[in-house]
Predict the structure.
Amino acid sequence: MNTYKVLSHPTKEVQAVKTGFAWLAIPFVTFLPFLPLWFLFRGLWKIFIAYILTILILASIDYEIYGELGFFNFSNANDLQIIIVIIEIVILLLPAFKGNEWTSANLISKGYKVSFSVQASSKKEALELAQNKKIDYDMIY
């Protein structure tokens, strides 16, 4: 079971966003390491552009260090090369740790408000539970 934030909007449909780790936000999980489509499906255009620019900058640094066909060799690497690789790994994993937060923040910036959280096994189930909870809440008040 996962926890989902349920966000509602006065004129748009209810949204559910999982809290915690976003597996599909890792570029290697989607098998498209140079095109993280996850951002685009979530409407995170600004973060997508910043992420692509960051990857291009890091790729150009790698090209300068290792050349056209070069690769990172841990046993021959100096301290700067090790630091750059660690930074690259952190940047590649950052969307997995922060992606769902970014999605919630994006929806909130579009006028959504966090209504409540639910425990569910999928986003579909979370939306169904949210609908039932809203009906129960409306019946009480």
Q: What stands out?
A: Residues 135-141 have pLDDT under 50 and may be disordered.
